[in-house]
Amino acid sequence: MKLLRTAILTAAMVSAGAAYGQVSDGVVKIGVLNDMSGTYADLAGAGSVLAARLAIEDLKDVVKDLKIEVVGADHQNKPDIGSNIVRQWIDVDKVDVIVDVPTSSVALAVNEIVKEKNKVFLVSGAATSDLTGPRCSPNTIHWTYDTWALANGTGNAIVKTGGDTWFFLTADYAFGHALERDTSAVVTKNGGKVVGAVRHPFPGQDFSSFLLQAQASKAKIIGLANAGADTTNAIKQAAEFGITQKGQNLAGLLVFLTDVHSLGLKTAQGLIFTEAWYWDMNDTNRAFAKRFAAANRGIYPSMIHAGVYSAVTHYLKSVAALKNDADGAAVVAHMKKSKTKDALFGEGEIREDGRKIHPMYLFEVKKPEESKGPWDYYKTRATIPADQAFRPIGEGKCPLVKG
Amino acid sequence: MEINLPALFGQLLIGLINGSFYALLSLGLAVIFGMLNIINFAHGAQYMMGAFAAYFLLQFAGLNYWWALVLAPVIVGGIGIVIERAFLQWLYKLDHLYGLLLTFGLALIIQGLFRHRYGSSGLPYQIPPQLTGVRDLGFTFLPNYRAWVIVFSLAVCFGTWFMIEKTRLGAYLRAATENPTLVRAFGINVPRMITLTYGFGVGLAALAGVMAAPIYAVNPTMGADLIIVVFAVVVIGGMGSIMGAIVTGFGLGVVEGLTKYFFPEASNTVIFVIMVIVLVTRPAGLFGRAA
Fold it and tell me: Quick check: bond before A203 cis, omega within 30?
């Protein structure tokens, strides 16, 4: 049946896409790899490329002797596509450092390739705490946040205010599984109980079936172990089913500024979650946000964008000090030795297992009447100090850490 | 696994709601394929445009959901008519592949433009105040809005089926597909009828988009995620069969709902498994007539 054949061919084409890059040599080449067209395109996407460019602009005194180039590509949240781009970037286009890479399944694949090729991998977008746990690498630094930090911040706060029975709605891939695992650990440690979980396909569209299962579980808290449009759809539909009016509460375990923007304050108000950075916390952040938004169609920076800025800054300082970018492990070792310092994250450090350490924040979404306008969405509930924000180094089972 | 009957009924009902969207979308596809022989791959993008049109009407003209329900299909259908006049009308005599590639290209361009302008994370759209709230059915909670979706889409589906299968206008349409030359000899303007049919099919997609806006995220890829499933529904129902599209749409919504209950991980593949089985056993689809 000819018709059918063409339909199937076309369906295959839908999933294929374009990667781009340029050949270069003798320059520091930064490859920003993320989702440029799908559900994570606003919270990472082209904004991360912009953040890397802004970092270079702000460092021009330090790196004036270096020739720096930035390239970007779309991994479409697929590990195979991401792996192909990274191989081509390193082998053919001489890219020296891979940055960002949201979607944990893609990040884990890229992690292996970068180690094998001895380049540098600076993770801002991906969440799985395995990147500094069993899968840690001498070539990788996990910059902005991870599933353990999210679970620790949000899980602790909720269990301590009485939310002690949990049901998870989990995105069915590496990230969702890691987030569910890390949050379950926090809940149980604090004397709470996990009564069930349901794994939904990624990306999903309709969550009402899963929400009904969550409702039937009678758990006090429905933990959303997903991200992007999956989270906003689930929150929107939970409101529709009146789940919160009936006494169950939602815990968005990974919520970004762009998600709140897309939900609107009316639906999102009162949500509590953990993030590493917010634009309205101080004057330097606000100045950065204005500059960023002006070049990004008015969309304000997420913590992932800020993390890319911070990571690229520290990387370029190390390369400038070493005057060498060829040996990835050596650059990462230098980055771990030196304290980090940049406009957005202030001072911090990088641990032996590759974990960048800084404070995390527990935010609450404002009520519509509290907000002064678009993007004025969060109020800070608590600051989790740097030494408590991330998993203790001994508990991660990272082979790089000598017990 | 113990089976909790109330929960099961709840899932059946949810499946029926999702089936409403499948039915509305596959109905539009079936109308277009049946009458124009075009595989309209831009259907998902047109559904997305419907949702965006609802947002624009509210944001820039202050027109609420009920206005959007009427105006968005007309506006997006109008755009469809322009597309048909400008591009599709030149392709009817060629292989299906050309129409498919053209509409697929259009879909990518439309999605790209919306993404460039509005980003990928979506825009907020609230449920109309008349339809907020939840009804307790004993075995499950049914949001009023979802009840409205089922009732309204059933009415639209039945109305469309009735118009095409039981009225004089529908008879002209069906005759024009079978033998355009002969119908033209009776003094009927066949090209105009075909143009309007495409506009109608596109309008159905936009209508589904407006209905989806309050419950799904309004974002540029909302249609792309759905369209592959809807194509599977059309293939299972039988390409071009109106009744097939409606029944299969609702039926597969229910099957998917049950899968979400018994084996959630498989819920986005189950429809394709059924598609494979149907194609192997009944290549023309459940309701299709073998060519």
Answer: yes
- Write the ipTM: 0.82
R_g over Cα of chain B: 19
Please tell me the distance in Å from B167's CA to the nearest CA on chain A.
30
CATH architecture of A148-275+360-383: 3-Layer(aba) Sandwich (3.40)
Nearest to A212 among B121, B140, B224 (CB): B140
d(CA A54, CA A44): 15
- Searching chain A, which residue's CA lies closest to the CA of residue B222? A205
Q: Supply the pLDDT for residue B141.
A: 80
Token pair listed for A236: 């929107």
Q: Nearest-CA distance from A319 to chain B in Å?
A: 34
- Which CATH code of 3.40.50.2300, 3.30.429.10, 2.40.160.60, 3.40.50.1820 fits the domain covering A21-145+282-350? 3.40.50.2300
Which 37-66 residues of chain B touch chain A by CB within 8 A?
Answer: 39, 41
What pTM, to 2 d.p., does this model score?
A: 0.86
For A203, the 3-state DSSP assignment is coil
Facing residue for A232 by CB, picked from B96, B141, B217: B217
Would you state the structure tokens that stand for residue A9, as one six-digit string?
A: 């061919």
Could you read off the pLDDT of B110-142 as tens digits, one per residue? 999 999 888 888 888 989 999 988 888 877 788
Res B44 pLDDT > 80: yes
What are the mean pLDDT values of chain A's consecutive 10-residue runs (403 residues total)?
A: 52 41 62 92 94 96 90 95 97 96 96 96 97 97 97 94 95 95 96 95 88 91 94 91 86 95 91 96 96 94 98 95 91 96 96 97 95 94 95 94 78
Distance of alpha carbon B268 from alpha carbon B264, whole angstroms:
8
Identical fold between A21-145+282-350 and A148-275+360-383: yes
